[in-house]
Specification:
Blueprint: H1 2-25, H2 29-84, E1 96-99, E2 106-109, E3 115-133, E4 146-160, E5 164-171, E6 194-202, E7 211-219, H3 225-228, H4 241-250, E8 255-263, E9 267-277, E10 296-308, E11 312-325, E12 340-341, E13 353-354, E14 363-375, E15 378-390, E16 405-417, E17 425-426, E18 431-432, E19 450-464, E20 472-487, E21 492-504, E22 506-508, E23 511-514, E24 517-529
Antiparallel strand pairs: 1-2, 2-3, 3-4, 3-24, 4-5, 5-6, 6-7, 7-8, 8-9, 9-10, 10-11, 11-14, 12-13, 14-15, 15-16, 16-19, 17-18, 19-20, 20-21, 21-24, 22-23
Amino acid sequence: MRKHAAAALAVIGTLTTSSAQAQSGNGSDAEIALLKQQLRLMEQKLDRLQRQTSANAQAAASASAKADTAKAEIKTAVANANAAIPVKGAVAPSGVVVTMPNNRPTICTADEQNCISLTSRVHWDVGGYDFRPNSAATAPQRLDNGENVRRARIGVLGKFLGDWNYALVYDFGGTSDGFGGTAAGSLPGGGVSGIENAYLSYTGIRPFGGKMAIEGGIMDVPWTLAEATSSNDILFMERASSNVIATNIAAGDFRSAIGSRWWNDTFWAGAYVTGPTTGQIHSYSSVTPNGSTEQYGVVARAAGQLVSGSDYSLHLGGNFEDLIQPARNTVTGAQTLTLSDRPELRIDPTTLISTGAIANVSNAQVYGIEAAATYGSFFFQGEYYWYNVERGANTGLPPFGARNLKLDGGYAEASYVLTGERHKYNPATASYSGITPARPFAWQSGDWGAWEIAGRFSTVDLNDQLATAAGIAGGRQNIYTAGLNWYVSGNIRFMLNYLHGDIARQASATSTVNTGSKFDAVGFRTQVAF
């Protein structure tokens, strides 16, 4: 259209110019009339060109509208086709999200189905003892004051595809407190650090309206109420001796295990097959003085928060442990088991009660009951255990035909949070968490965190069949503990413990020489964890 209009204007311009020249040349009216006639013809031609161009534009607009309609119909058809095809789920958005829950660095995909986070805890203890042996025959004659990096852990926690969970945590702390090797008094395993967690867990099954975890590896087996409670959340610097003795048989920290647990908001049940700890020597070589086979056992626990309300709760449970096969020394053929613990403070790692190596152990069982309750800021927890050690192994070593041993112990502890916070229930472990201060410490604002006072009585009796050659004189230990906990924030806590211990013990099952002792001790812990 633009080309035709330009041509017409050019012709008109030419004719107009010619007309002007003709008029000025001879003034002929005939020529002027001819030029006007030609101009009218050109105007008519231009009108036809404009009408044709307008018709073409309308046709083009109509074609464009039809094309847009066709595109919309195609999109609708594609959407309907996609809706008819079953898919697993929406495509996950790209990118990652970095968060800091409770100051734990965590990286997740945008759909939160895949995560990895860094975890750590440091428990540094200092303290001292006023130790009073009953006689010159008491061993040791004194306990050492000092410090101990009780735990120094760092590791990673992760989640894949929403339901696969894993952990890899290493403890650089004094978990065996320096007693490595084979010297007298050495602790089982002989290591001072080791792999604390290295496991894989699947939580995609949800039967009976709850959740289930199927897991295996090196883990903290959640057997007993005290062991199911994180060491970051326990009321005192150490768990009660009766609990430590029970879990060391076939459960506890650093334990290889495979099993399952199920829970909902009210009930918890779990069972595991367990093996040796990560530090335990298990070499079958006959040239190795400490060569031994691996032990294995089973543990089971059922518990629940039977009563709960906005201001109160009641927890009850029971547990069972069976050391099915103790480790067997491949050189001597001995199968032994030692029940012992340090006096609920590990500044000095010396044990004051111990059965020594019980010979010819074929297996051992532990039966336990547990209870806990909350009322406002008040908290109570207690457990009791019965240990049964069967001495029927056919090792060819004395004593022959010895009767089974029956030992027992337990504890009761309570606390009150002065600032009003409460211990909350954790259904995944059937235990109670620590305190998160409502107002973390801040000098500028005058907030002082949360403060808690606590008390505990614990007892354990490792004596049986005294006055007989096959008897065991492990001693009886009673410890009273008072504690003050200052929760600076959700990550920092300071703990002050005072302990009074009374150990009644004789030199052997057939000797009544008094080797008991008494002690008073003070311990202080600095705790940082995330």
